[in-house]
Amino acid sequence: MDHCPCLQRLSLTALLVRDYDEAIAFYVGKLGFELREDTQLTAEKRWVVVGPPRDPRGLLLARAVGDRQCQAIGDQSGGRVFLFLETDYFARDYATYLGRGVQFIEQPRLEPYGTVAAFEDVYGNRWDLIQPAGR
Fold first, then answer.
1. How confident is the model over 23-44, as pLDDT tens digits?
2. Is the pLDDT reported for residue 11 higher than 70?
3. Which stretch of DSSP H or E encloses residue 16?
4. How far is the C-alpha of 125 from the C-alpha of 113, rounded, in Å?
5. CA atoms lying within 13 Å on the CB side of residue 92
6. With contact defined as beta carbons under 8 Å apart, do 123 and 18 qualify?
7. Which CATH number applies to 12-132: 3.10.310.10, 3.10.180.10, 3.40.47.10, 3.40.50.11540?
8. What is the pTM of this model?
9. What percentage of residues in the chain have a pLDDT greater than 90?
10. pLDDT digit string (tens) for 34-72?
11. CA angle 23, 117, 82 (to 5 degrees)
12. What are the domain boundaries of the chain?
């Protein structure tokens, strides 16, 4: 087996969406993500990448095509929390998101791993907003 000094990292997570502009409005307008790329590839397909400021990772907003993908919009994880948004200041971001109309599905709670509250995106995907313990 080769042992190379390779570096691997996750860079993008594909997220099925119903409409590019609707998804951009939520992620950029409500969560404060950056619109990093929006390139027209074909008449119906765009390469749209959003992500939190100062984080190299991001979401590829992939418009669903066909029945199978359309049925998976908002349920890519079978109803579990799907994505985790880490913050350095939970109270600030929680209040900001509430003010912007983000729908939290629970009250904030303190866990051994940090302060957390789950919210849903525009499609019903569940996210955790989390400030890790000790920060």
1. 999 999 999 999 999 999 999 9
2. yes
3. strand 12-17
4. 22
5. 6
6. yes
7. 3.10.180.10
8. 0.91
9. 90
10. 999 999 999 999 999 999 999 999 999 999 999 999 999
11. 50
12. 12-132
